[in-house]
Amino acid sequence: MPRRVRRRIRGNFNHRCFKPCKVPGNLLETIILSHEELEAIRLADEEKLYQEECANEMEVSRATFGRILNSARAKIADALLNGKKIIIEGE
C-alpha cells in the first residue's frame, strides 16, 4: 500500500468547482484536481518560481514537483479544451 505523503500547501483555495458557462454541471464530465496540483500551478504559473524553488516550497524533490505540475497542467488543459468541470479536492 502506498504511503500517504503530506505536502506543504500554502495557497488559500476558496473555490471548489469550475465549469463551462450555461451548461448544467450534472451534464459535464468531471476532472478532479488535488490541492497539491493546484499549489504546483500557483507556485509555478502564478508566482513564476523556478521548479527547484517550487519543490523546496512544497518540501518535495524537483522530480516529484515536475510530475505534480505536469499532471495538473494536463488535467486543466483537458477540462478547458473538452468542456469538462474541475472539482478541487483535498485537505
Keywords:
alpha+beta; 3 helices; 45% helix; elongated
List the helices and strands and how they pair.
Blueprint: E1 17-18, E2 30-34, H1 35-46, H2 51-58, H3 62-82, E3 85-89
Parallel strand pairs: 2-3
Antiparallel strand pairs: 1-3
Helix pairs in contact: 1-2, 1-3, 2-3
Describe this structure in words.
The protein is α+β, with helices and mostly antiparallel strands. It has a domain at 34-89. It has helices spanning 35-46, 51-58, 62-82, and strands at residues 17-18, 30-34, 85-89. It has a 3-stranded mixed beta sheet with strand order 1-3-2. The radius of gyration is 14 Å and the shape is elongated. The chain starts with 16 loop residues before the first strand and ends with a strand. The mean pLDDT is 90.
What does the overall shape look like?
elongated
Helical percentage: 40-55%
Quick one: biggest sheet? 3 strands, mixed
Assign the structural class, choosing from mainly alpha, mainly beta, alpha/beta, alpha+beta, or little secondary structure: alpha+beta
